[in-house]
Write a structure and sequence with these properties.
68% helix; 294 residues
Amino acid sequence: MACGDEESCLRFLIDHGWEGTDTPLTGDAILAREKEKTWKTIQEMHVDMRIFDVLSYADQFHNLKAVIKEVCAGRRGGKIYVESTAISGEELTQIIQERDYDALPMNMREAAKEATEALLRAGDGQLCDIIIDRTALDAIMAAGRNSKVKVIRAYAEATVAVANIRIAVRAAKTGKSRGFLKRALAPCDSLDVDLLAQAALSGTNAVLEYLETCGYAEGAEAIRVSLSAFERWSDNYIIRTVQPQKYNAFSAGPLVAYVIARENEIKTVRMILICKQNGLPDAFIRERIREMYV
């Protein structure tokens, strides 16, 4: 953050090992390389890579949403896909164009069909988003509940709970209906989504009051500051959830926690680079810096 501009930041990263052979001096290239290095490190451990599937669900469902919108709009080549997912953007495009939903993973099929039909028949982009986002949360929660790895269970619960809070706050601010909330909120263990929805219908203050009763008082306080403060708290909350796993040496926990931490680190560096690129002051950046896994 002390670097004067984006180029200085990039050279700082390279000096600290964030580079690869022939990696261009651009933020996207360097961060993509770091993500590749993270997964290469994990693969060298010779563990069952299926353990890490849940960590890719957000990217996979993001790609599904992007492909459906492109196909339904008749556009191609928007460069809006997250790379290195189990199914590439090109494969997803072919599947959606051909309506070959059975070629998708089981937890995507129904959502892909329903979201595509919602967009084609009604032109309802918001409903398309809700269908896919809710299915992604349900998939993460199911993976957590079915996992024998403690950190996966903790990660899934924290991720879904934070997403539900975000949905409820935004719904309260924009006056969304009960039907919207019922469709968008995903059941989890630490929140009663019916009570959360009822609170959202009553306004932001009611949401904050409910959060203070169920262990999310810090999240409520962050929301009172600003939405950016809440986003920072959300990522920090997930990191704090997985931090104890570093001491659990006889399980896959430390490896899963390492991947989550590296993703958080890369996300934070990306944020700093974007802020430097746009000439934003250090105070603005500091408010958005995430906690590191150390």
